[in-house]
Amino acid sequence: MSDNRESKVSEQLMQAREAESNKKLSEDFSESRTTESFEVLSSDSRSASERLTPAEKSEPRAQVVASAPSVDALGSVERKNYSNIEKILEEDLAGIYMNLSPKDQQNFKEKGEETAQAIFDMVYRRAKVQIRKVVDLIRRWLKTIPGINKYFLEQEAKIKADRIAEIAVREGKKVDF
Questions:
Q1: If you ran DSSP here, which 8-state letter would residue 47 be given?
Q2: pLDDT at 169 over 50
Q3: Which residue has the higher pLDDT, 166 or 62?
Q4: 141 contacts 115 by C-beta, under 8 angstroms
Q5: Domain segments of the chain as ranges
Q6: Closest Cα partner for 156 from 113, 93, 97?
Q7: What is the pLDDT, as a whole number, of residue 66?
Q8: pTM attached to this predicted model
């Protein structure tokens, strides 16, 4: 009976995520619209760039760049899931972090946030999680620590990847080792 309840809850979570994602996409689309009017096709044989006036040629054009949503744009459930991944990555590294120089701390923090975002995308936005890639991401992040022991690095990367694999399995994702 609890399996049935869990499946209903997970189904509701998936529907909520999908609705939130659709809402976000709709907002992004409406924000990315430009106010420029469209040109009506004519029988003019000149190319579009040849028909522009010198002033129009020098104007910067709007570009829409697709990127993963920032942590601030995540819903409450996704934010909680993201923070769970961050906690796994932070585990047992507080002492090492405190011994780093401020410059190294900043670099380590930035790379850690990038790593957490990439792992979050793998675990929660893809159907299949490749643990090999998770280990590589964590390994690259830990290599930013100056003078880190390579055996410690490997051990920590594998432990953290195993914990992330557990989350992926709980989420019902296919895990590829």
A1: -
A2: yes
A3: 166
A4: yes
A5: 2-58, 71-176
A6: 93
A7: 38
A8: 0.58
